[in-house]
Specification:
There is one protein chain. It contains 8 helices and no strands. The protein is mainly α. It has one domain. The chain is globular. It is found in: Endoplasmic reticulum membrane; Nucleus inner membrane. InterPro entries: PAP2/HPO, PAP2/HPO_sf.
Length: 215
């Protein structure tokens, strides 16, 4: 008697009888991603299925690292005596620096840990490199690939080699156990999109004369 209303249970004590379809789908995709990435990590360690190929994979890893690309581009910019080449190299340097900053920001926000089977022996890492999402190598590979194909005059075989390099660098990230597949896929999409930003903000003597006066 008295008509007192029942006290509601705390939210954590309530059983969710109807979980959302989106939640189930995302959880399933995440589980598939982790499972497939671990199965494909055939070079994650010396004792892995393709452990003997690990040194080669690490050479490929260095070929997509940001530091060699930034230093090489800066050196070429300093040595170039052609105004057209300086313009292309300056924008490539801008693209590489933009890529490094964007990947660091996304990694710092998402903070997805690297795969458990990854061996942390990467070439020159910084604080955010302990995180996995997205793959900076894949982002850089897609960005550089689009940039080179657009602004360098190359024979067809060389253009094919550039595309193959981008694909091999991206695939090697999963094979080495550095990243999950979704890290690499998002990295490729991000790199592809960043190239559009570089084209939109293209640096030229007409738009940034003070910058070109330095060279």
């Amino acid at each position: 008697s008295g008509g007192a209303a029942p006290v509601p249970l705390p939210e954590e004590d309530c059983m969710k009888l109807n979980p959302s379809f989106v939640g189930i789908a995302l959880s399933s995709l995440l589980a598939i991603d982790l499972w497939a990435s671990k199965r494909l990590g055939v070079c994650a360690g010396e004792g892995s299925a393709w452990g003997s190929a690990r040194p080669l994979m690490k050479v490929i890893e260095v070929s997509g690292h940001g530091i060699p690309w930034v230093l090489g581009t800066f050196y070429g910019l300093c040595q170039s005596d052609s105004s057209a080449a300086r313009e292309v190299l300056l924008n490539l340097l801008f693209a590489l620096l933009l890529d490094i900053v964007m990947v660091a920001v996304v990694k710092g926000i998402v903070k997805r840990p690297r795969p458990t089977h990854n061996k942390m022996d990467m070439f020159v890492t910084i604080s955010v490199d302990k995180y996995s999402f997205p793959s900076g190598h894949a982002t850089r590979a897609a960005l550089v690939c689009r940039f080179v194909l657009r602004h360098l005059v190359l024979a067809v075989p060389l253009r094919v080699l550039v595309v193959l390099w981008a694909l091999i660098v991206s695939i090697s990230r999963v094979m080495l156990g550095r990243h999950n597949m979704t890290d690499v896929l998002f990295g490729l999409l991000l790199g592809y999109a960043l190239y559009g930003v570089v084209e939109h903000c293209w640096l030229s003597p007409a738009t940034t004369p003070a910058l070109f006066a330095l060279w």
